[in-house]
Amino acid sequence: YAFAAAAARPGAEQKREYFERFLADAALPESWIEEALAPLNDPDHEAFTLPLIAPALEALPGLKRTRKIFFVNDWLAAFLGGQSSPQALQRVQRYLERETLEPDLRLKVLEAVDALERVVKVRARFARAGAQLSGAAPPPSVPGRSP
Predict the structure, then answer these.
(1) Full residue range of the structural domain in which residue 29 is found
(2) 112 near 70, Cβ under 8 Å?
(3) Into how many domains does the chain fold?
(4) Digit-coded pLDDT (tens) for 18-40
(5) pLDDT in tens, 66-107
(6) Residue 145 falls within a domain, yes or no?
(7) Does the residue 147 lie in any domain?
(8) Is the residue at 143 inside a domain?
(9) pLDDT band of 1, cuts 50, 70, 90
(10) Phi/psi class of residue 22: alpha, beta or left (left: φ > 0; alpha: ψ in -120 to 50)?
């Protein structure tokens, strides 16, 4: 649990080091990675992990080949579940637009991004409603999505 607890420390460099170790350290037990995924991607640290979204997605084909059957699902749930910003959603959408994925991986990404899409839509809608009540300018809409 010390490995997972250390992954929870805030800081972009700390998060990047753990992420790189997940992918490069063949001696690192998979169970340690699984335990560290959620703390690494704590929603309170989304600013630190946002830069890891694209490389986390790009790692999917390799993870599918080298890890246990449900590892990819846990990986996606952690990396996308720790995000709530339109910027994170845009990164996933760009990845899906440009990458040719095996159908099963594509479906897993689409399933995992669904919750992020919902969070972004709900936050945008409530921000607009709050802005209208306060008289402030509403935030911009999520590109490619209707409110």
Answers:
(1) 2-134
(2) no
(3) 1
(4) 999 999 999 999 999 999 999 99
(5) 999 999 999 999 999 999 999 999 999 999 998 789 999 999
(6) no
(7) no
(8) no
(9) confident
(10) alpha
**Token representation of residue 143:** 């590109």
- Is residue 142 one of the residues assigned to a domain? no
Residue with tokens 């800081």: 11
pLDDT at 127: 78
Closest CA relative to residue 130, chosen from 119, 142, 138:
138
Q: What secondary structure, in 3-state letters, does the chain show?
A: CHHHHHHCCCCHHHHHHHHHHHHHCCCCCHHHHHHHHHHHCCHHHHHHHHHHHHHHHHCHHHHHHHCCCCHHHHHHHHHHHCCCCHHHHHHHHHHHHHCCCCHHHHHHHHHHHHHHHHHHHHHHHHHHHHHHHHCCCCCCCCCCCCC
